[in-house]
Amino acid sequence: MTADKELEKLLSELTCKISIDDIDEDSKGTVKAFLKKELKARTEHRMKRLLSRCGIKPKQMRVFDQFDWNFNPKCPKQEILAFRQSNWIQEAANLVLIGDVGIGKTHLCKALCYDAVVKGHQALFITVFDIVSKIKTAQSALNRIEYYSKIDVLCLDELGYCFHSKEDTDLLFQIITKRTECLPTIMTTNLPPKQWGTIFSGTAASAILDRLSANGKFLSWEGKPGRGVKHLAHLNKH
């Protein structure tokens, strides 16, 4: 890329009103250096802002480099990494991770959330219990539903850890339906799909499964509880 092309790209990315033709030839190098620093500063600021709003505390953040794939050989590593490397955000692909407590589902869910933020997308990690509670206690449940429906990446953790009333089910169904084929939803659960009728009505369980299945992947595995985390200090900087 020529120097002028690089400068034009920077002007465009930063939505500058001035054009390259308005910049003196002798000043182009200085302007380009300044714009590079500005773009870097904006990118870092946006990432910090997105991380602060993603629902994960800095010390509880997880990334893929931390995950110890060896602690559980039954974990579908290749399928998870294939999903991660796909255009899952642009393609609005859903993912449901199924298995017992402590096998790494939440870690992987958080890591996908982190990946989304690094790419500049708004992401939110929240438990199913908390999202239902926040909607029910909001001044406007409808506005809150719309908010969750429009987040770039929604990560719902711990489906199946409590029974859901018909009202709870309706709220979840509305959010998932609005997101279907538009925005990706990641979910973790300790229940295989055939048992979702134990926390929802049979009809509601089928409807929610149908929406998540649209462009969705369900991955399940077993294993002894163990976090499989390799601690990385660099996360504490965010």
Structural features, described:
By secondary structure, the protein is of the alpha/beta class. The chain folds into 2 domains: 49 residues, no CATH class; 181 residues, Rossmann fold (3-Layer(aba) Sandwich), CATH 3.40.50.300. 44% of the residues lie in helices and 11% in strands. The chain contains 8 helices and 5 strands. Strands 2-3-4-1-5 form a 5-stranded parallel beta sheet, sandwiched between helices. Helix 7 links the parallel strand 3 and strand 4. Helix 5 runs antiparallel to helix 6 and helix 6 packs parallel to helix 7. The longest helix is centred in the first third of the chain and has 25 residues. It is elongated. The model has no long low-confidence stretch (mean pLDDT 92).
